[in-house]
Design a protein that fits this description.
This protein is an all-alpha fold and 265 residues long. It is built from 11 helices and no strands.
């Protein structure tokens, strides 16, 4: 820790707790408590039930969770592929070219996601590429929204790579494709796993663009949560939110372990 004084450390920890608890921990705790409540008319909830989780883990809710997982995994992998390719290709460009490439990738996250959803809806609602009403338009929108994070993460990692490894491989007769596949990508593996984890988390929670695009047979869990709370089923919506958070954390934990092994490797 950069603060060496004991009093200063206590002050930093106190400030952290004062800011963290009401801004981050308390809302999550309220959602968790509400997911087990039967009524909440006062300062504290009354009644206890696990029935909300029974509804949140079966039928349409379970299908919505599976839809979110498939969408997030697909969008994350596509974003990682496109973002990594663009980051590697961008190293051959000049400074202006890299800035232009960075701007193009950051643009979708610089505007509200609902604008991205509308743009995708308008662009792919007519031939020759007609995706409206299919799950593929949801995959596309999620990929567009998260690719910027994959590109930025990999680009930052490439800058920190020691060129001596690539130069040594090239001096031994390795072709450029071999250098990328056998040298660069293994060195980038920790950053690649971090990027795919970030993209997955963002895709799992995406709502604004999805609401504009999803077909009836491809409802994600955030859309299900929004629909439940819109009907006034706040406790069921809270249980769905806890299920969403739990699934996301479990996948991110698995990705983190892969990243740790990749770092040691």
């Amino acid at each position: 820790m950069l603060v060496h004084s004991r009093k200063a450390r206590w002050a930093v920890w106190t400030a952290f707790l004062v800011l963290f608890l009401p801004l981050f921990a308390l809302p999550l705790l309220v959602v968790l408590v509400a997911s087990f409540a039967t009524n909440w008319s006062g300062a504290l909830p009354s009644g206890f039930t696990t029935g909300h989780y029974a509804a949140a883990t079966r039928g349409e809710s379970l299908q919505a969770l599976a839809t979110s997982l498939v969408t997030a995994v697909t969008a994350s992998l596509l974003a990682l592929l496109v973002g990594t390719w663009a980051a590697l290709a961008g190293q051959a460009l000049g400074r202006r070219g890299r800035r232009l490439l960075d701007t193009l990738f950051v643009l979708p996250v610089a505007v509200p996601s609902v604008v991205v959803g509308l743009a995708v809806l308008v662009a792919f609602s007519q031939p020759p590429v007609l995706l409206n009403g299919t799950r593929w338009i949801v995959f596309l929108a999620h990929t567009v929204l998260v690719t910027a994070f994959a590109h930025q993460s990999v680009s930052a990692a490439i800058v920190r790579l020691d060129p001596a490894y690539e130069q040594a491989a090239a001096s031994l007769g390795a072709r450029p494709a071999t250098v990328v596949w056998r040298v660069r990508l293994p060195l980038l593996l920790p950053s690649l796993t971090a990027a795919v984890g970030l993209c997955f988390a963002l895709s799992m929670g995406e709502l604004s663009a999805t609401v504009m695009l999803y077909p009836p047979d491809w409802t994600t869990l955030p859309v299900q949560i929004y629909a439940a709370t819109d009907r006034g089923s706040l406790f069921t919506g809270s249980a769905l939110a806890v299920v969403l958070m739990t699934a996301t954390v479990l996948v991110l934990t698995a990705v983190s372990r892969i990243r740790t092994r990749a770092s040691y490797r």
